[in-house]
Fold:
Amino acid sequence: MDYRYMGKTGLQLSVLSFGSWVSFHKQINDGVADELMGIAYDNGVNFFDNAEGYALGESEKMMGRVLKQKNWERSSFTISSKAFWGWRGAENKPNQHGLSRKHLVEACHEALQRLQLDYLDLYFCHRPDKGVPIEEVVWTMHNLIQQGKILYWGTSEWSGVEIMEAHRVAHQYGLIGPSVEQPQYNLLERNKIENEFLMIFKTVGMGTTIWSPLASGLLSGKYNDGVPADSRFAITGFDWLKDRWMKESYLNKIKELATLATELGITLAQLSIAWTIKNPNVTTTILGASRKEQLLENLGALPAVEKLSAEIMQKIDTITGTKPVLPEY
Ligand code: NDP
Structure:
């Protein structure tokens, strides 16, 4: 495993990490979660991603039970939670979601209880909240760090402007600003990492924990001939995700990418994941898996990086046609 500093912080994260969205509680039980986290950890993964909203809190409870069972040294791994959506779904009352001081503090306490931990290593604002003053968010996160309840805080799917505004406020009051952003990044979704955030990487230097490296599995090629019954897009309630990704234009590109991967002697999932970590502005790529074989295959993306020469990267850009066009100087 390789480790990268998270932006300008002193924290080192494994370049491949493991997340629990959709899979924990909805698809897998404690036994499989234990097996998958064990495989990840034994392969050097030191970051496990979670959120209050995943399976309405049940994902954190499951991860907490696994961590208790594993009894790994607390200093050997990092855990995140994220607040914004709450965990009561449609039952959320006004202060039970969002980024108010009340919800951020309460969500932190609840995540610690569910995960059975004393502190979170990373705590994310899962989305920006247009209704809450940015000063309130930055002060709250700073104070949670002072209280030892979280070690670093970050944003997820914030705009570059919103991130810089948080840094401006932090600078103004001498507070600890966000040090990490969690955006989507994959072969089909590149704009934030390769365009919008470029200035941010150069100036305040955010780390990134990127999500959906396989576009929810699409970039493994598993949907090329339709939706398998045991896959994410077949789960009740995930039609919106299927509709987002099951498009002829994407599938055509993916078939071409699959041919390229075969020529390189790697799988399409490995090519897709290796491509994300080839970008030095990615601190860690969060893997998702609903079974052991997937995780083992995806961990094989690390040695696959060396197969992505400049020529191959160019070929990938030509096939996908998704590389942001930047102004020429
Ligand atoms: P991916 O895009 O990699 O999708 C993972 C899913 O794809 C797996 O659960 C599995 O689903 C399928 N899959 C994975 N590997 C393979 C393979 N080799 N062959 C075939 N199918 C495969 O990542 P996620 O979308 O799960 O995102 C990763 C993590 O990022 C999440 O767990 C979460 O922690 C985080 N995240 C954060 C978000 C945010 O807003 N901050 C949003 C979304 C995710 P199946 O078997 O069910 O088909």
The first strand starts at residue 3 and ends at 5. The longest helix spans residues 248-264.
